Amino acid sequence: QPQAPSPGDEDTNNNNNNNTSKSALQDNIETKGKNAYYFAHAHKANGPKWDGKVEPKLLAKQESQHEFKKPAFDYSKSNIRKYAFLDEAKAVKLYIDLEGIGEKCTDEDITLEYTSTSLNLIVRNYNPDEQEPLCLVFGKLTASIDGATWKKKKDKLILTLTKTNEGQWHTINDKGTPDHELL
């Protein structure tokens, strides 16, 4: 004849039918889903196991795929101090006398970088004995520009800055007084 289960046996049987390895937190999240009180704790960390040390641990090392080139704006001091300045309605031109630049420098030796409000000209290999390239920097122009180009002649460089808005420029920089000696 079958025996009637005692009250303690019934609870044990129900717990055995359910997965006893679940925690109350997991059970609450399973039954109530995203509305569970403990839902925020449902995310499991999937990083490496903690080694018990307080010091940071390097997880991975890989080579950079980017070539880091020193931007021309790092040269903060101009060593080109003489130039001629021509203000036209739609453009500003700078004439920089550099004797023999047409023969001494290739097009790759000349770098012109600009933003709408700044300009930086770098001339490398003009003086092979000197490590420093020639540099002309304007940290803040009188007004904004849309573009800047250069032309190399036999004994000079000509920079042409295209103005964003037509207007008169009394100087190239925004200080109101020339940064350099004007010719």
Protein model, in words:
This protein is α+β, with helices and mostly antiparallel strands and 183 residues long. The protein is built from three helices and eight strands. It has a five-stranded mixed beta sheet with strand order 6-7-2-1-8, with no helix packed on it. Strands 3-4-5 form a three-stranded antiparallel beta sheet, with no helix packed on it. The radius of gyration is 36 Å and the shape is elongated. The termini are far apart. Mean pLDDT is 78; it is low at 8-19 and 70-75.
Short overview:
With 183 residues, the chain is an alpha+beta fold.
Describe how the helices and strands are arranged.
Layout: H1 7-17, H2 24-32, E1 82-87, E2 91-97, H3 101-104, E3 110-114, E4 119-123, E5 134-138, E6 145-152, E7 156-163, E8 181-182
Parallel strand pairs: 1-8
Antiparallel strand pairs: 1-2, 2-7, 3-4, 4-5, 6-7
**Which whole number gives the mean pLDDT?**
78
Secondary structure category:
alpha+beta
The N- and C-terminal alpha carbons lie at a distance of: 120 Å
Report low-confidence residues grouped into runs of 5 or more: 8-19, 70-75
Quick tags:
183 residues; alpha+beta; five-stranded mixed sheet; three-stranded antiparallel sheet; 3 helices; 8 strands; 13% helix; 25% strand
